[in-house]
Design goal:
Its cofactor is Zn(2+). The chain is an alpha+beta fold. It is built from 26 helices and 34 strands. It binds (3S)-3-amino-4-(1H-indol-3-yl)butanoic acid and zinc ion. The site of (3S)-3-amino-4-(1H-indol-3-yl)butanoic acid has 15 residues, from strand 21 and helix 2.
């Protein structure tokens, strides 16, 4: 396979000014005609090279005349044309495709009988021959012809300009998109669908029709998605001054979709799981995810669509920025602290391992084989952290100025990350020379902080050392600008006033945005070693470092356990209050793991239990926040901190700590369940979501004891549950313990929900993620269960993806988990390489384990790479994992 490099970027030889598409949709074949106005960008008569895969070329005309066979060549991936007219010309291409046989779910395909498209990143080339790259921007018109009974609804981008009946029971619709766009934003849907209709009046008074389309039986589950859409439209106007730019906004939900959703211009297509919700079938987590992703795709209308990427290496330009925007939206809709905690947990448990493994790549990658493999947590989530750092460095108002200048300069263009950075810096008249390195250097920096207090001088000094670790292909790294947000707590737990800080020889006065003193200073750490001294510090403070997780680093500091308990009790920065508890938990578990590995008896110290109890009993806390504080770091996060990951020891110790906490706080936990049980019907408000979160964390602890009384509590919660959040949490609690009750409860849940595909995914995931011993065989059996279907990505993510998160089973000592995954990857690769390559990624950390496991995992990776006909997608991940 061919590797593509950022350094080789070349502007396209031809512009496509206007594209008229005609789709004649059929059951056996679909005909696609494209009429393109082609304009040369240079005068050198270069060949016109169009991308195209799995297409059957029917006719090819230039200016209405058939092109001679001597003047074009068709290969498996390209249509190569020479001897072209000088100047502009009209190109007509007719191809035949078979959407009904498309299991890859990219290009034009069928999902439960309806036609739909997915063109990002390089799917348009599976619809017709085209310069399939984001810097070719055109105006599109789309005519769709189809059977009227089977496909009564015909949708594409822009405005409906014509529709009518055709002979033989067919009909047509013509859609015109007034905005220029790259072909990856093209969309078409044809099917038997109904819409929930609503409207939104924009800040300039334009009425926009909003429609959410689903199969008829799902209509009742789209109210939350519609509400979320209207909130997102309002939020973008209020926070960024960005208004929607057409009179119609369509969303379609499809059950078979490789990712979460797609921001096609005015015709977003969503995975059903991110649209459909009812209290009985969706959890609070689902509700929040729907709100976030609806916001995300809507926000792309400006960050992605109006201003798009020059090439796919710039993906984070739109994705990092849009994730940041959706995070801020969700923070404003719910609890800011809880949202930040959830986002940091995701970053640390998913992105940090990627940054420390063989697939480590910068936020802007330097090369790829398959672009689909670079829709990663690094590009999305580390990318969002980079955008957040601009805001931390420039302040909210400064960040907004930068955004305004970005749109002023680049509306309608396809640009690079440099252009975003230049808009941010120019708007604020700053230059941070080491900041651009965040786009180019992979690896999570380690920031080591040593503090000291000088009582005579009344100064508090913070010594920083940053190391950006080597990653594949990048052995040497430079220090980068890390914004380090710091607060200092006095002995009462109050924030001290911070008036000035010395950075080397220069003294900076510290003020807040309104000119007053500040309680959080943002230090600019941009050297390998650097010292900052706070002046006028009248007593020895407890430092609160990296407030609100101001930079995506691994922080190592000399803050003592005593200080951490103090921060857990008092820090005004809610994120750091939670983080203090997490740091204590991580330290405790790592110590216990070492003791366990040495064969010593282990115990949990009483200060830790006391700390947890104080959170559980603090009625002044937001209950969702308390629930997060009570949740111990995941096994993966702990294993990631070990020199050699030992999944068995981590599992034993984490479970031991959970049981110890449960045993010591049994009565408090029982009370928590009782007090937070809801007596009313489902209420989606934050207050009630928070009550459910706290109650269900407590329930999980109690069930871990596996005592008749605590199990009865879980069974009772399961029986009385009036919504999926509570029902699933209770089932999860019960299923921690193998045995008859577990099997009976799973069977009961299945009987109740077997007709609801999205609920069945939860049922599959719960079993797949289970820590019960020897679960590989159960999961293998579930492959043949009617609730599973390997062609549906959601089911694969639930069962196979879920299984790989259970460290003790996926990394089973006998290698059975590795063999299972390889078997599935090889089967799946033939049907859907994008999803297969997401699954094979679970192997990528194999070098973190002991020698026996390494040998077993390596053998399976080699088995995969030696397979004939392997997709480029899986080859890239598997071979890079082995390198
Ligand atoms: N921009 C969208 C990306 C996407 C995608 C990429 C590769 C293969 C399938 C895909 N489906 C959607 C989603 C987003 O980030 O908004
Ligand atoms: Zn996106």
């Amino acid at each position: 396979p061919k590797e593509i490099f950022l350094k080789d970027y070349k502007a396209p030889d031809y512009a496509f000014q206007k594209v008229d598409l005609i789709f004649v949709l059929g059951e056996d074949k679909t005909l696609v005609t494209s009429n393109i106005r082609v304009i040369p960008n240079f005068s050198d008569g270069a060949p016109l090279i169009l991308d195209g895969e799995r297409l059957k070329l029917v006719t090819l005309k230039i200016n209405g005349l058939h092109v001679s066979k001597d003047n074009y060549k068709v290969s498996a991936r390209q249509l190569h044309m020479t001897s072209l007219p000088t100047g502009s010309f009209d190109l007509e291409v007719v191809v035949e495709i078979e959407p009904q046989n498309n299991t890859f779910l990219e290009g034009l395909y069928k999902s439960t009988g309806n036609f739909c498209t997915q063109c990002e990143a390089e799917g348009f080339r599976k619809i017709t021959y085209f310069q399939d790259r984001p810097d070719v921007m055109s105006k599109f018109t789309t005519r769709i012809e189809a059977d009227k009974t089977l496909y009564p609804v015909l949708l594409s981008n822009g405005n409906l300009v014509d529709e009518g009946d055709l002979p033989d029971g067919k009909h047509y619709a013509v859609w015109e998109d007034p905005w220029t766009k790259p072909c990856y934003l093209f969309a078409l849907v044809a099917g038997h669908l109904v819409s929930r209709d609503d409207s939104f009046t924009t800040m300039s008074g334009r009425k926009v029709a909003l429609r959410i389309w689903t199969p008829p039986q799902d209509f009742s589950k789209t109210a939350h998605a519609m509400k979320s859409l209207k909130l997102a439209m309002k939020w973008d106007e209020e926070v960024f001054g960005l208004e929607y730019d057409l009179d119609l906004f369509n969303i379609v939900a499809v059950p078979d979709f490789n990712m979460g959703a797609m921001e096609n211009k005015s015709l977003n297509i969503f995975n059903s799981k991110l649209i459909l919700a009812s209290p009985e079938t969706a959890t609070d987590v689902d509700y929040a995810a729907i709100e976030g992703v609806i916001g995300h795709e809507y926000f792309h209308n400006w960050t992605g669509n109006r201003v798009t990427c020059r090439d796919w290496f710039q993906l984070s330009l739109k994705e990092g920025l849009t994730v940041f925007r959706d995070q801020e939206f969700s923070s404003d809709m719910g609890s800011r602290a809880v949202k930040r905690i959830a986002d940091v947990v995701r970053l640390r448990t998913m992105q940090y391992p990627q940054d420390g493994g063989p697939m480590a790549h910068p936020v802007r990658p330097h090369s790829y084989i398959k672009m689909d493999n670079f829709y990663t947590v690094t590009v999305y989530r580390k990318g969002a952290e980079v955008v957040r750092m601009y805001q931390t460095l420039l302040g909210k108002a400064g960040f907004r100025k930068g955004m305004d200048l970005y749109f002023q300069r680049h509306d309608g263009q396809a640009v690079t990350c440099e252009e975003f950075l230049a808009a941010m810096f120019d708007a604020n008249k700053v230059k941070f020379p080491t900041f651009p390195l965040w786009y180019a250097q992979a690896g999570t920096p380690t920031l080591t902080v040593i503090t000291s207090y000088d009582a005579d001088a009344q100064t508090f000094t913070i010594k920083c050392k940053q190391v950006v670790p080597p990653t594949p292909g990048q052995s040497k790294k430079e220090p980068m600008l890390l914004p380090l947000a710091v607060g200092l707590l006095d002995s009462h737990g109050h924030d001290m006033r911070l008036t000035s800080v010395k950075d080397g020889a220069s003294l900076h006065h510290l003020t807040s945005a309104d000119g007053d003193y500040t309680t959080t200073a943002v230090l600019h750490v941009d050297k390998t070693e650097q010292e900052f001294t706070f002046m006028n510090i009248t007593e020895k403070p407890v430092p609160s470092l990296l407030r609100n997780f101001s930079a995506p680093v691994r922080l190592v500091s000399d803050v003592t356990n005593e200080d951490l308990y103090f921060l857990l009790a008092h820090d005004s920065d809610q994120f750091n209050r939670w983080e203090a508890g997490q740091t204590l938990s991580r330290k405790l578990m790592l110590d216990l793991i070492s003791a366990h590995q040495r064969g010593e008896k282990i115990s949990v110290d009483s200060a830790f239990i006391k700390g947890i109890r104080s959170i559980l009993l603090d009625s002044s806390l937001d209950k969702d926040f308390a629930a997060r504080c009570l949740t111990l770091p995941a096994e993966g996060e702990i294993a990631d901190l070990m020199d050699v990951a030992d999944p068995d020891a981590v599992h034993i110790v984490r479970r031991f700590v959970v049981r110890e906490v449960s045993a010591c706080l049994r009565e408090d936990l029982l009370n928590t369940v009782k007090l937070n049980r809801s007596s009313i019907a489902y209420d989606p408000s934050h207050e009630h979501r928070a009550r459910r979160a706290l109650k269900n964390v407590a329930l999980g602890y109690l069930a871990s004891l596996n005592e008749p009384e605590t199990i009865d509590v879980a069974v009772n919660e399961y029986k009385i549950a009036s919504n999926m959040t509570d029902q699933l949490a209770a089932l999860n609690a019960i299923c921690q313990n193998p045995g008859n009750l577990r099997s009976k409860s799973l069977a009961d849940f299945y009987e109740q929900w077997k007709e609801e595909a999205l609920v069945m995914n939860k049922w599959l995931a719960l079993q797949a993620m289970s820590d019960i011993p020897g679960n590989v065989e159960n999961v293998r059996r579930l492959l043949d269960h009617p609730a599973f279907d390997i062609r549906n990505p959601n089911k694969v993510y639930s069962l196979i993806g879920g299984f790989c998160t259970s460290a003790i089973n996926f990394h089973a000592k006998d290698g059975s988990g590795y063999t299972f995954l390889a078997d599935v990857v090889l089967q799946l690769d033939k049907l859907n390489p994008q999803v297969a390559s997401r699954m094979v990624s679970s192997f990528s950390r194999w070098r973190r384990f002991d020698e026996e496991r390494q040998a077993l995992a390596k053998a399976q990776l080699e088995r995969i790479t030696s397979q004939n006909g392997l997709s480029d997608n899986v080859f890239e991940i598997a071979s890079k994992s082995l390198a």
